[in-house]
Records
---
Amino acid sequence: MSTSSTPSAAPKFECDLGATLFKSRWTFEHEMAPYTLLYAPDWPGMPVLVTDDVRQLYDDFSDGAPVGEVLSQFQGRTGKGFMEWLSVVNELVERGFLRDVPDAATFTPKPYHPSRKSMNVWLHINNYCNLACSYCFVEHTKTYMEEPTIDSTVSLISKTVRTHGVEDILIKFAGGEPTLTLPQMEYFFDRLTDELADTKAYVHWTVLTNGTNVNDRFLRFIDRAKATISISVDGYGDYHDLYRVYRTNEKSKRTLPVISNNKSDSGNAHHPKGSWSVINKNIEILRRNGIVPYINAMVGPKTSKGLPDLARWMFGNGMIGTIHVVRNLEDSWASGSHRKAQYGAYCDQLEEDFEKMFQELEHERYQINLPRWMEVAELYFDNPAPDICCGIGTDHIVIKHDGTLASCPMTVHEQTVIPTEDLFLSAKETFKASPDDRGSEECLSCQWFKVCASGCPVANQRIRGHAFMQSPLCSFWKYVIPRYVVFYGTKLLQAKKNDMTAIWSGVEAK
């Protein structure tokens, strides 16, 4: 049995006292008295806490050692017998901390072959929005997916599902602002539901919205579709309103006052035509109707300083969400996409602002069920990335309002592909770059490669000229990944202290 390669699921180690095991070179270790935090970034599973005796057992395999030889020295320690210690060794193997061959000095790239049993569909159902965010990649053309296009799109999804036996489908209504074309969402839902009624495919529906347009009809649709709602924000209060202003105020957004450092000035006081106060009211409407929205928080050069307040608002109110770090250093993605900007200062700023956020959230009053309740976009903490951070060109299908396919939501107005009856094969045509062809090899020797997989390939292509090479945010990733792991460990300790371990996965205290 070889446990040195990345599996799809943790293996069951078969007890062999003659086997020689080795500590993984990739394991992250951090002292959190009275425990040690262990995390295998290239292996399924979140960090665990181990006691000092388990740490000593683990360290005895540093240079490789036979199982039986190590266990003979541990028999009787802390009251544990031989078989109990053997069980500990088994678990260290199952979690990827011990392996039966030494790890190579670099990762070996492997082609990504998704099972095609699941499909993630980004449905760009319209091309317009009631807000005028300066960085938006969507052209405001006031076009939407008409019924004939919906019919043909539903037919293609159905054919692909039947061809490959797809079992799970995620449909994301997006735009633009999808709630402005609610009849199209309703029609699409009814058509696809009917079309797949005789299959075993399970469809999960979600709406990606700016949160400004919540009414009774929308609430009825959410209830009928059993859909989830993701609301995008650009920060807390004034930080949000720096960008997310109503379209009728597009000119005024250029003359917004400088954001005050005075917390009492937060909110909508200086930006009465921004959308922050509206989405807050709508979130309360959603919550009163039993809907807790998922928050997609966009963080950029002008908004990252508001992270602590944003985190306080999100997690202090029991919400969950993902933090997205934007790549463009200027307000317009187009103006910043074709120049090789210096990202060092930006990474330093992000590190400083994320650190303040982590310190805030480390207070015991925040009970955050990690990793689901707080994610950092594009990072794979609980399962190793397949050498690419997303499903671009494979099982992530981006369908435009006219029925053609794009490689990514950011590229919907660039080159597109006319789909065939197999959407998986068509998606492959939208993105020809492959992680097998790397612009540099330095990522393959990084401890955190299987967590970030070099970051966003579209952003890498635009900023560094190659889809698969070291991300312009690399130095920030090298900070935030281990910092998130330590944050997770802190929350494990707090849960154990407060006897709340049932809400946490991965607690080890042998």
---
Amino acid sequence: MHIWHGISNCMSRTDASDSAKNPFLTVLGERARMMRSRRGMTRKVLAQEAGISERHLANLESGTGNASVLLLRQLAQALNCSMAELVGQDGIASPELVLIRQLLRGRDETTLKRVRVALADLLGTIQADPSRTGRIALIGLRGAGKSTLGRMLADDLGIPFVELNRLIERAAGCDVQEIHSLYGASAYRRYEQRALEETIATYPKAVIATGGGIVSETSTLEMLLAHCFTVWLRAAPDEHMRRVVAQGDLRPMAGNLEAMGDLKRILAGREGFYAKADMAFDTDGKALADAYLELRASILQRIPEQNHGR
């Protein structure tokens, strides 16, 4: 408590205009907004779940965050460690973990992926799944065509079609929107992970339509990549919006005059995680029948013949 009291006192001596212009606070705000967008959460919902005021969150995202963050950054720099190490909940990191983090700093995405796969193999956290390519999981934003194209593909291959949101609603006893409003986004993610676990355990072959934010939870994403052949269905933001509204779903527009901007931020926040899929398929500007035939051909070229269904 004494430390935080001292930081609070220091804040009063920090010039507000200097804090507002600080590049670090600007980047911090952008990262917070990007992470919120990745999870598809409104500022109001995140503020409620975090137990902070919406105004405080808005200030943080706009780059005028609490000046105490700058003091923590200065401490981390003086100690030659990251802020995560300084404020983490796991206690003082072991020497080996510190050395591993140092090895990973500044590495490119390709190298980090190789390290992650090698580490998972070394630790045995991801077991080889002989049924992986028998399960075709479609990922992407709402309006990408996951349900429509997924159902067509499952019917054609003669294998079950599983829509994770329907399993989630059955388990929760209410629809997805009610889960979010009653229990919060974290509860929805827990239901989602259990639904995926159940699907993997039940079906050696299936086409699975996932929720748009399934990539937001790293443990769920790892499970998906380890046990399913994943396909990212891509489309431009305006195409996503047009399709969702055409289906009669006005949620993207309801009470939100910046819906398109929000959608673009969500896509930007998730794009790198969607890109972890085994393949990507663009549905922009394609008639449904054409998109389906191209998608089917692309998938069947990539998976072993014995897993084609019938």
